[in-house]
Each structure stands twice: as structure tokens, then as C-alpha cells.
Amino acid sequence: MPDISLSGRSLVAGSAQGELLYSDVGLSFWGGVDPFSGEIIDRHHPLWGEVLAHRVLAIPSGRGSCTGSSVLLELILNGHAPAALVFEHVDDILTLGVLIAEQMFHRSIPVMCVGREGFAALRDVRYVQIEAGLLSGFSQPQLMPEVPAAAVYTPVLPSTITLNCRDRELLEGAHGKAAQVAMHIILRIAELQGATELLDVTQAHIDGCIYTGPASLRFAQQLVAWGANVSVPTTLNSISVDKRRWREQGIDVALGVPASQLGDAYLAMGAKVSFTCAPYLLDSAPKAGEQIVWAESNAVVYANSVLGARTLKYPDYLDICIALTGRAPLTGCHVDQQRHATLRIELPPLAELDDAFYPLLGYHIGLLAGSEIPVICGLEKRQPNLDDLKAFGAAFATTSGAPMFHIVGVTPEAATVEHALGKQPAPRILQITLEDLRGSWKELNSADEAKVDLVSLGNPHFSLSECATLAALCHGQTKHPDLAMVITCGRAIHAQATHAGYVAALESFGAQFVTDTCWCMLGEPVVPVQARTLMTNSGKYAHYAPGLVGRLVHFGSLAACVDAACAGETKGRLPRWLDDTVEVPAHV
Q1: Catalytic residue of the set 61, 65, 216, 463
Q2: 408, 442, 476 - which closes a domain
Q3: Active site includes 463?
Q4: Whole-prediction pTM value?
Q5: 156 inside domain
Q6: Beta-ladder partners of 87
Q7: Separation CA 545–CA 52 (nearest Å)
Q8: Packed helices 558-567 and 464-474: angle between N→C axes, nearest 10 degrees
């Protein structure tokens, strides 16, 4: 007899059995799981070093990057996927990866959601069997019957979603095979999300153009073969290489060729040449209230929180499905009442801040928030600029599953706490201390030695104002000859920075620019082979770099990065605002 038996919501049907791999901390598959082996590479995660292949993975939900769906598709098609996924909360990103594998490639794994109590009951379980929507847990190995092979997927359309005439035409194939398959996928996700109707979107930003392996290219090329063509203006995220210069940068053809082919496939579908993880810096950035479909986690959070546009945290592959049809589920942050905060964060008194404060705070609040939308109190008089909010949002999106945040007196839907909360009941209130922030500072600073071999800037992509600030900081100084400084940015910003003279000034200092790609995709030799430690002002990259490139990290302000670039080492001091010996004026 099983030690526990749980019924739950079957997100993807199927049968599986295996050893349970359990954590009460969410996991980002992108940057957290090796797509070719299934090893967990997120050094900040409790399961670091474990291999999830062929085990039943139980986590509250995913978190972080929207590319998790692409990584899971790779694992399913290369045979290194978990035997099954068990969630506390419904997770759209990872579930979508399974749905794509099932619908397009006839491969699948079961996915279940068991709720808070059911998930907690799994903590001491060692072995699991899933069958017919039931989960049986055992503390000892069991001689369990063989699980039958998954049946070939047969589409069953949900009957709970209202469709218009064009929706039905799409489903019947009147607008081509690619749009027909895309519509099937959209409706399956809409059903999981509890949506009862679809809405029109005005633009899309595609994250699925990141090369995670052969499956990502296979997916895009299949859509092209089916005649895919986007129906709304569509921009592309950073791809995995600098498309124009990867050969001269020494990138291996084994990555350069397929990564470029993947970019070409999305361009063939009608997307624009943008290749940036910061589409909010483009002239095409959406306006407040505009209904859009954006993937790329930092862009989603910025669009919702700072611009006041409306998008979900769309998984890779669902983004292009919606771009092909122009239709998205009417749910989540597309709806007024689902944009309100459910968690209140109160900050301690703070001394004079530098720009490292905002990514650190975003990183820490993301850990606290989980999938809840927070409202942050205590920055009303600070007036963070758009670069500060960009850095905050990117770090927040790295550790949180939430699609947006509010900052009282700063973001457009939080003129007051009451405005951000709407008519929600009294929220949980969490108070952050300086000691809490020092703990996260230590997490982001994983390097012990003072020496710095690489200063990596531009995650997310640098803005024009960041280029200007950096050029001013570097003026009249000399970069250490044994250290590399590399800045990533989009083509549009690079052109503007060139015209303004910032590129020439920074190249004279010794910095290098890389366009089209971003630090979450870059490896050797752009990351020098001999480099042991790097320094960054990005909370997002400070989190991901140890797992992605195997280097230890120093984190600090942009000025501290320039100091390290000149000295070849960092002083390793806490900023004044994080030092509890610094007296805070009473009025602050």
C-alpha cells in the first residue's frame, strides 16, 4: 500500500514512476538545468548538482526565464527529461514545453498540480507512481508495474472557450497549417489558465529565438515549412550569437550555425530584425493599457510594471503561436483585477543609494514574492530612474514567477498603496531589514578572490543612458591590460551610441561591444578561457553566471565595475547604504 495517495489536477495526462526529487524552492529551467544532461546547474538552488533525468520532479512551480519551456522540450526530445512534473501551483511555462512536445513531436510526460497540502505531503516521499490522475507515494522502493507507453496525442478542443469566426477559421486550417497548430496550442493553455475567451494583441516579442539545442531549431523550421507568418508586428529577443560577427569572435560553428539559422527562421516568419532582450528601449515600445504578447522575463515585468502595458509571462513557443494568430487567452495581467498586489513589502530606512541597490532589492524581493505580485513601500522619495527600474525588474524576474511589481509613488498603477492593492483583502506584510539585504548581497558575490578577469555589462541590454553614464565614468581612465570589459546591447542602441560618440569613447578605454546576443547566452571565448572571476552590475547575471559559464562573480555598482576594470581587482567593500554603521538621516 502507498504511504500517501493524492489526487490533483492533471495538466498533461500520462503515467510515470520513479524516484522523487523534491524541493520547496521554484526552479528556472533556463540557466538552472543543463538542457543536454538534465543536471541542475543553478548554484543558488537547494538541488544544485542533482540530475532530474528519469526522476519525478516536484517543485512549487518554475521561476525566472520564459525559456524554461524550450529547455524542457530539449530534455524531452533528447531523453533526459524528468519522468513527470508535480507542481504546487499551475506553471504555464514548463507545462507549455510538454504540450509542444506532445502536439508537435508525439512525446510527452505527465504533469500534475496537487495544491499546497498535497505538495507539502510529498516532502518525505522517496518514490512516486502517477497513473490516471492519481499520485501514489512510497518511502521505500517498490516493485511497480511497467508504465504503459504514452499514446499518440489526439487533439481535443476545450468546449469552455468562446470563439469568434476567425478563431474557427484558424482551427479549420483556413489560414494555414502553422496557424492551425498554433491555435490548438493556445486553446490548450487557455483552458489550463481558466480563460473563457481570447483577446486581440497589438504586438509580440519572441523569446523562443534563443538556441537551446536541436529541438528549438526543429520547432521553428517546422513552423516555417508549414507556411508560418506573423499577424501582428513582432520583434525578436536576443539570439545566442552576434549574428553578424560570431565567426570573428571565435564562436564554434556547432553553435554559430544553428543559432543563426534559428534567427533566420523567425525572420522568415515576418519578425523584425531587433535581437534585443530590452524591447522597451525600441521606438515600438507599447503604451499604457496596450494588450501585447511579450516573452523574455525581464521585458514582461518591465512592460507590465513600468510601461503599464498588459502581457502575461508568456513561455517560449506560446509567444510565436500568439504572434501567428493575433489571439491570446484573456486572463492574468491582461485583466484589471489580476494586476493588483497581494503582498506588501516595507523597506527599512536607507542611506544615500547607488545603482547597485535596485538589482539587489529586485533579487531579494523576487525570492520573497514567489508568484505573488508585490507592492513595495519606502521608495516614494527616491525617484528611481528607468535604468534603475530595468535593473530591479530583471533581477526580480530572475527569482520570482510573478509577471509584475508595484512601487508606491513610482510605477503607474501604484500612486498609493491602496491603488496597487485594489479591492484585495489585507495582504501579507513583509518587512525587509538591512541584514536581509546583506544576505542577498553575499549570495550575488560568489567570488572569494579580489582579482577580476572580466567585467560583463548589459544584462539586460544596455540603454543609451547607460552607455552615456559608463563613458563618463571611464573618461580619463585606463583599463587594466589583463582584464576584458564587454558590453552587450541591441543594434538600435549601438547605432545611437555610435552616433553620440559613446561607442568610440568606450572602445578607446578598451571596452568591446557585442550586439544581437546577451550574457545569458554568451560563453567562451567571449568569456575569456583563462578568466576565473568576473564582475557585473546585473543582479540577473550575478545569479546565472556561476551555473552558465562556471565562473565566480563579484557584484556591484557601475562605478565599482569601472574601478575594478582599471585596477584589475575589486575592493570588495559593502556599499554605504548596506553598512549598518552608517547613520541614516531621520527624514530619509
Answers
A1: 65
A2: 442
A3: no
A4: 0.91
A5: no
A6: 59, 113
A7: 21
A8: 40
